[in-house]
Amino acid sequence: MITDGTGIPLAATLTGGNRHDVTQLMPLIHAIPAVRGRRGRPRRRPQRLYADRAYDHDKYRKLVRAAGITPLIARRGQEHGSGLGVHRWVVEGAFALLHWFRRLRIRWEIRDDIHEAFLTLGCAIICWRRLKAHSIC
């Protein structure tokens, strides 16, 4: 899952249980929908990408830079305290919100398309609840 700075899910993908997270980095970046707003060229991608040490590969840093995004990824082998944990908790909070839904906490479906539908629905409900909380009624 990739989120914005406030924890709203922008895109989510579904993979097998023993796949490494870094394999889904570029598909997630390409899955972010275009941002509509003012006239002119639409902003397609975020400006910065915060990630933990699991994404520390030069290959993926180059791919993220080629997409026009500045990667801010913690380096392996260096001591902790880089400050990226402040941004990482936003994604962990979004995962915690997804675990509110019982069907997403433990996968019971055999078919992956059904589970992906529940994942998309869960992300949509999180977005709707966040918008409802911030709307002026």
TrEMBL record:
Highest classification ranks of the organism: Bacteria, Bacillati, Actinomycetota, Actinomycetes, Pseudonocardiales
Entry's Gene Ontology BP terms: DNA transposition
Alphabetized GO MF terms: DNA binding; transposase activity
Organism: Amycolatopsis japonica
Stated name of the protein: Transposase IS4
TM ranges: none
Every Transposase IS4-like domain range: 3-125
